[in-house]
Each structure stands twice: as C-alpha cells, then as structure tokens.
Design goal:
mainly alpha, binds zinc ion
C-alpha cells in the first residue's frame, strides 16, 4: 500500500513538472510577440479556439489528440510534448537529487535548481527560435545566484566571482577578436550562471555546451543544412551544459581531477 501511494506521489511530481513546462511553453510563444504571459486563455494559435480544461493536461492531451488541434486539426508541434516530458523529468530529477521535505514537497535547494532549469528552458527555446536571449533572464539568474549564496553557501564568494568571469571573460575576448564568435546573450548567460554555479561547474557546463553544440554544428555542416558562414543559436547547447552542471558539475570535475 505504501509503495502504491509513493508511486502516485512520484507520478504527481512528474505531472507538476510537466504543467510548469507547459506554462513556460506559453511564455516561449508569447514573449517574442510582446504578448502577456499571464493573461489571455490558452488557445490554438491557428484557429483561435479556446482549449477545454482536459486539453490542458500536459503530455496526456497531446497523446489523446494524436498531436492535432481538436478544432482545425493543425499539427501541434512535437516540441511542446517533448518540453513537457523534459519538465516532468526535471522536477523528478530535482526531487531525487535534492530530496523532498514535509508532505513530499520539493526541498528549498531543489526548488532553486528547478527555477534555474525553468529559466534555462525558456532561454534555450526562445534563443532557438529568435537567436535572442533577453536580459531579464540574466537578471533572474543573478537574483537566484544571490539567493543561492545567502541560503546554501555551497561555494565561497570568491569561487562564485571567479565562476562569473572564468568562462565569460575568454568568451568576451574571443567575441571582440572574432566578430560573431559568441553572442552577447551567451556571454551574459555564462557570467550570471558562473556566479550561480561556481567555478568548477561553469567550466563543466562550457565543456558540455561546446561538445553538444560542436556535434550539432558538424552534423548540420556535413548534411549541408548549414554553410560554413551560417550561424546557429548556441544558447540551447549552453543550456544543456548548464543543466548537467547544475546537477553534477562539481562531482564531474572532482572525478576528472582525480586523474591528475
Ligand atoms: Zn486549431
């Protein structure tokens, strides 16, 4: 019986995370158009039909509707479904990694990391669509870094300040020397995130960002979908690296340093 109840709580946690991602998806669609994120009911962007409550259930409604709008039968982007799954997985991962407190509610540290992951998701998707990272997200990460330092003291102030410049500094120099090497939004993202994650984790994040971004770039180049001079959004790949580092950055770096 206890195992059954525990399983239900884990399913609820997953769906809570998926709901948050579903809301963030709305923000990703509306922010670049200058529309309000909180007001206005959820609707089909093609036929304008207001969605029924059951159509707002993340993951399930997409499967039930077979990925099409119930009114105009337009395909709902699979990306919406995938981001909801990622949101559910992120919430579950925060609960596993940082534990849950009273009534099974996510711990404070887990909540801070989850908010950070939410910001990264919005940054990555908007950057993918528009190649812009809004300054408001850098400011949100800076505020989160202050809260993190004040509440948890996981890293010293010196380590966090070094984290803010150790990757962003060389990126800025490269961008000044080679125009278009890195966007200003990417550099600010790494500076704010360095303050949040600390030195070791931000280096780890950059490693994974370059690895995934480099892999994507070479696949696109080989398949002829991108030319040598074409640019693509690097923010989503930095976000992948930052998400990995937010969970296990310090551990990955300590493991790596054992070989020296
Ligand atoms: Zn429709």
């Amino acid at each position: 019986m206890l195992i059954f109840l525990e399983s239900i709580i884990w399913v609820l946690r997953f769906f809570f995370g998926a709901c948050i991602a579903s809301f963030l998806n709305v923000a990703v669609c509306r922010l670049p158009k200058g529309e309000s994120v909180v007001s206005g009911r959820s609707h089909c962007t093609v036929c304008g039909r207001i969605l029924k409550p059951w159509e707002l259930i993340p993951c399930i409604s997409y499967l039930a509707l077979r990925g099409k709008c119930a009114g105009c039968k337009t395909h709902i982007p699979a990306r919406d479904f995938i981001t909801e799954i990622i949101g559910g997985a992120a919430f579950t991962a925060c609960a596993v990694r940082y534990g849950c407190g009273t009534f099974g509610i996510l711990s404070l540290k887990g909540t801070v990391i989850l908010i950070y992951l939410g910001i990264l998701m919005v940054v990555a998707l908007i950057d993918w669509d528009t190649q812009i990272i809004y300054d408001r997200f850098h400011i949100m990460i800076l505020i989160l870094a202050m809260i993190n330092m004040w509440l948890f003291q996981a890293h010293s102030l010196k380590d966090c300040l070094l984290g803010a410049v150790i990757i962003a500094g060389p990126m800025l120099i490269l961008a000044l020397l080679i125009p278009g090497a890195f966007g200003g939004g990417d550099i600010k993202l790494m500076a704010a995130s360095g303050l949040f994650l600390g030195t070791a984790s931000i280096v780890c994040a950059m490693f994974f960002g370059l690895l995934t971004g480099g892999a994507y770039g070479s696949i696109m180049l080989k398949s002829g979908k991108l030319g040598r001079k074409d640019q693509f959004a690097f923010g989503p790949f930095l976000a992948v690296g930052l998400a990995v580092a937010a969970f296990y950055g310090d551990q990955i770096v300590s493991w790596y340093l054992r070989f020296f």
